[in-house]
Specification:
This protein has 317 residues and is of the alpha/beta class. The chain is built from eight helices and twelve strands. The chain has helices at 17-23, 42-52, 123-129, 206-210, 213-225, 242-253, 269-275, 307-310, and strands at residues 2-5, 81-86, 97-103, 111-120, 147-155, 167-171, 189-193, 197-199, 233-237, 259-264, 279-282, 297-300.
Length: 317
């Protein structure tokens, strides 16, 4: 009898790397969609066990619109300056400037330098630009961007798991809201600690890979926070969104949900079923408060639903 929303905390995302590592060697069948939200911590460590035990994760599908990115890239000489989107004050979209002479990030011993092939935008990016968490933000000016996929062009002296030429992806920020890096992913190059990234799955292009990190971290963390486990039932609000679509798949195929229901508009009901939802609910025609079926957990992937409404969807203990 627990609820969770897709608007999660500013806690560390550093230990979610196992999630990416566990996906990397396995094929992932993608559909695409936009990425969403902020995330946390233990999922990377937890899902590393899938890789170490050589368990096969099911094919995952994500929904996202995107512009084509180059399919391959080769490491080349790293320049001292790069092109990037930058803002030097908080505000609306007008504060964003395209700069052709931004310094390439300096590499720390435990970091790799990535030539960016694709980057994704999330709600946290515009909230950061608006100054919603400026008290804990890194100093301005800022190159925005959390999610990235690209090619390693340089490695620090302590890096062990990656080499120049590796195709990688991940969320570059240790903590989403607490001191995120000054230089993000909306640039030609970005620097990131090796523990925060993983090898890109071979059957994904760079744009597909860049669409995953924050959305799948958020999906996993939300389920983890509620203590969701095998045999429990789940209702996902906004199941066709970036986070919701991944919640359905993770709940069904990784956590072992007994039953998954999800809401969407009329045109996306078939998508919900194809992702594994046992019950697809048209929120334009049905009131979730009046559903005859009740659930162990309600996952609010919208983040704005009144808790008094979601409470009506819980099973009584």
């Amino acid at each position: 009898m627990l609820t969770t929303t897709a608007t999660l905390s500013s806690s560390s995302a550093s230990q979610l790397a196992p999630l990416f590592h566990s996906l990397s060697p396995n094929p992932i069948s993608l559909r695409f969609s936009s990425t969403l939200q902020v995330t946390n911590n233990r999922a990377r460590r937890t899902l590393t066990s899938f890789t170490r035990q050589k368990c096969q994760l099911p094919a995952l599908r994500v929904s996202a619109s995107y512009e084509a990115a180059p399919a391959t890239a080769e490491a080349s000489t790293v320049p001292s300056e790069m092109k990037a989107w930058v803002y030097d004050k908080y505000g609306g979209v007008d504060v964003l400037k395209f700069d052709t002479k931004v310094a390439v990030p300096k590499l720390l011993d435990d970091q790799v330098l990535i030539k960016v092939m694709a980057a994704a935008l999330n709600p946290v990016d515009f909230k950061r630009r608006q100054g919603k968490f400026q008290n804990t933000d890194s100093p301005l000016p800022t190159v925005p961007g959390y999610d990235v996929a690209g090619v390693v062009v340089k490695v620090g002296s302590q890096v062990k798991d990656f080499k120049v030429g590796d195709e990688v992806y991940g969320d570059i920020h240790e903590k989403a809201l607490d001191g995120p890096k000054q230089s993000g992913t909306l640039a030609e190059y970005t620097a990131v600690e090796e523990r925060l990234i993983a090898l890109k799955p071979k059957n994904l292009d760079f744009t597909q890979a860049a669409s995953l990190p924050l959305a799948i971290e958020t999906a996993y963390e939300g389920l983890e926070r509620t203590g969701f486990s095998a045999g429990k039932s789940l209702l996902v609000l906004n199941g066709a969104g970036g986070v919701g679509s991944l919640v359905i798949q993770l709940a069904k195929h990784v956590f072992g949900a007994s039953r998954v229901a999800a809401t969407s508009s009329t045109g996306k009901l078939e998508l919900l079923k194809s992702l594994g939802a046992d019950l697809a609910i048209d929120y334009t025609k049905e009131n979730i408060e009046e559903l005859p079926e009740k659930f162990d957990v309600v996952y609010d992937a919208i983040g704005k639903t009144d808790t008094s409404i979601t409470t009506e969807c819980f099973k009584l203990e």
